[in-house]
Amino acid sequence: MFYQLYELNHAAMAPYRAVADIMRLAYANPLNPLSQTPWGRTMAAALEMFERTTRRYGKPSFDLPQTVVGDKKVAVREEIVWARPFCNLLHFSRNLPAAHGPDPRILIVAPMSGHYATLLRGTVEALLPHADIYITDWIDARMVPMTDGTFDFNDYVDYVIEMLHFLGPDTHVIAVCQPSVPVLAAAAVMEEANDPLSPASMTLMGGPIDTRINPTAVNQLAKDKPLEWFAENVIMNVPWPQPGFMRPVYPGFLQLSGFMSMNLDRHLVAHKEFFMHLVKNDGEPAEKHRDFYDEYLAVMDLTAEFYLQTVDQVFIKHALPKGELEHRGKLVDPTAIRNVALLTVEGENDDISGVGQTKAAQTICVNIPEHMRMHYLQPDVGHYGVFNGSRFRREIAPRIINFVREHGRAGKPAVKRVIKGGKSS
Known about the structure:
- Residues 206-407 form the PHB de-polymerase C-terminal domain.
- GO terms for molecular function: poly(3-hydroxybutyrate) depolymerase activity.
- The chain is of the alpha/beta class.
- It has helices spanning 2-28, 38-54, 121-127, 153-167, 180-192, 217-224, 227-233, 252-262, 264-279, 283-296, 304-316, 319-322, 360-364, 390-406, and strands spanning 66-69, 72-84, 87-94, 105-109, 132-138, 171-176, 201-205, 236-237, 248-250, 302-303, 326-327, 330-331, 341-347, 373-378.
- The strands form three sheets. A nine-stranded mixed sheet has the order 1-2-3-5-4-6-7-13-14, with helices on both faces. Strands 8-9-10 form a three-stranded antiparallel sheet.
- Strand 1 and strand 2 (72-84) form a beta hairpin.
- The two termini are 34 Å apart.
């Protein structure tokens, strides 16, 4: 009943949030003389803090209407080009000039770990001037009716393969954090089948390929608890009246609680500073705080079967590095990967995926030629900095683009071949 109580509490707070928001607007109104006083700004700040800490944050938008290609601004149109019950494939279509040649086509596989794909807005924004970008927009499990079936690790791999088939030859794939394992598995399955539509290159960023290396607090939790503990304590049924009513899920608010508890002092300080910025009428830092937490606090539910399989296979059994990972009952063989270039990226201060966990892909994919592989460790960044922020834009994104361009397969013929199996078709 915990999920139901959470929903009930949220509904019970709705009238208080509404009153707080109305009063905040009144205190902040320029026509109100109190809005120009420290007392009025303090009241408005306190009311905004109450409203923001008790609201449910909806799915953010990418909001990338334009980009710069060369030295010109071009319009960007966001469109869904492929859809399944648990995922939409978004394309950021650029209005390029006729004389502009083809750019590399990149599929970004966003993490399905509690946050929406918009967490990678900065990733998309940095790569968009140089590439034709597609991204997986995973759907909140509580919004998917039970009649649409289940979604597990095998389905995730199948989705990646289907999207690569849809996009065609010479597609590059980037996996950010959690999808590193299923993306590597998808590449191995396609290569073993001699699939001509296997990705031209595979970039794995801050991913848990082998969590036995430099285990973090996240890894330690999974190691210390049996799988049954997770099934009994964190899996809940979606409450009425959500579309996914009665679907077993790992609720997003539990994942968010775990993330925040890891750096609770930092979040408390950030909110204290936000309050003081509001009182001092310091608008720019306050707006940056809003932008970050509007994204960070927007969470989605995961299907129970996918979450439990990921915990079991990735964090408890370490199935991939041990050579024991299966897809549809058949062992996944990373040594089959021979034609997919591999770039691994890690952050020096990553407290989610420890240093060396992603680089492990270089070890298990033994048959990728040396000239088709590269590893990069970014100094002075944590997990978030691996795919976002100033250092990502300056130092990581250019390396990704250069690697992708170097290992494209342009001009090589390919024939589409669909790998059957799965529940996503």
